[in-house]
Amino acid sequence: MSATQLRTTSVPAEADQRPRDDELDLFGLTHTGKVRRENQDQFLLCTVHPQVVIHGTSLPSPDTLPLRGDRLATVMMVADGVASGGGGAEASRLTVEAVTRYVSETLRCYHTAGSAADDHFFNALKTAVFEAHAKVKAEAESHPEVRHMATTLTLVIGVWPYMYTVQVGDSRFYYCFEGKLRQVTRDQTMAQELVDRGALPPERAAASPFSHILVSSIGGEETSPEVSRIEVRPGGVLLLCSDGLTKHVSDDEIAAEIGRVKSSEQLCHCLLDLALERGGTDNITVLVARRRSTT
Questions:
Q1: From its phi and psi, is residue 222 left (phi > 0), alpha (psi between -120 and 50) or beta?
Q2: Which of 82, 96, 192, 281 lies 20 to 30 Å from 68 when distance is taken between CA atoms?
Q3: CB-based contacts of 3, cutoff 8 Å, min separation 6
């Protein structure tokens, strides 16, 4: 496995049951797969903290001051680019950068999360998506050779004990608790639309030729972000992925690996290996967040 194929990022571990910073076990990786020449997936894992920046002081040891406050939020993001000629990679990059910039500039929204003002937070998240959509569209218009570039986006912002999700496209967010895996997001594909209308049995959706035709994307003809909120419990595991994983690995297999593996890094690699063994026909991105095991 070459360095150009695999990019990984490990974030140091980070109710009141809320995990401390040093208890967080976060890991993400992305791989080109065995068929594609280019990796058009992008991901981000980060934690958000209030920070004090010292520009001058007479204190002899300013480095001993508490300059970084308690974690405000945990951010997980996957974007799966769609287009040839590098356009998909550019779309996913622009989207991750634009959403990250918007989120970092609107920290005041975190203080309303979990309250009666949730609608303000949802609206802020939708605004971030529409800003990214505008940037991708503008880039496409200025570069006709990548005119149809677009990307999915699955964004999860954790403000304990809630996880706020923004979904565009068919990258997924799963939540697993006590061995039960739940797909939190809804695929925005033509196949899922047919399932919702009763025209396609759910068990046939994955094999349908419409399963990877997006009806909503950032930079595409239509962008319809879906926002939601779930409450998580201690011991729950969060997993985000692009469809390069779910094309080859079933939900039951994902749940089994979550139960078997004790670290986020190991889980990401195990799932990646499964997808590669079965063909690796697309770019593969996996992000996992869980509480660090003490055993």
A1: beta
A2: 96
A3: none
Long-range pairs for 102-111: beta carbons < 8 A, 24 or more residues apart: 102/127, 102/128, 102/131, 102/132, 103/48, 103/75, 103/128, 103/157, 104/48, 107/48, 107/50, 107/72, 110/48, 110/72, 110/73, 110/157, 110/159
Query: Token pair for residue 111?
Result: 């203080």
Nearest to 227 by CA among 145, 162, 289, 133: 162
* pLDDT at residue 49 tops 80: no
pLDDT higher at 114 or 264:
264
Q: Nearest to residue 238, comparing CAs of 184, 161, 292, 176?
A: 176
Q: Which residues, 6 or more positions from 283, have their beta carbon under 8 angstroms from its beta carbon? A: 30, 31, 32, 33, 36, 39, 40, 41, 80, 242, 244
Does residue 30 sit in helix, strand or coil? strand
> Model pTM?
0.87
d(CA 206, CA 192): 9
In the structure, what pLDDT confidence band is assigned to residue 1 with cuts at 50, 70 and 90?
A: very low
Whether residue 247 has pLDDT greater than 90? yes
- Whether the Cβ atoms of residue 79 and residue 153 lie closer than 8 Å to each other: yes
Least Cα distance to 93 among 174, 26, 7, 2 occurs for 7
SS3 52: coil
pLDDT tens readout for residues 15-32? 468 888 888 899 999 999
Is residue 23 packed enough to be buried (19+ CB in 10 Å), middle (13-18) or exposed (0-12)? middle
CB atoms within 10 A of CB 231: 11
The two most distant CA atoms of the chain are separated, in Å, by 72
CA–CA distance, 279 with 295 (Å, rounded to integer): 35
| 127-164 tens-digit pLDDT | 889 998 998 888 888 877 766 789 999 999 988 888 99
Tens digit of pLDDT for each residue in 81-95? 987 556 888 899 989
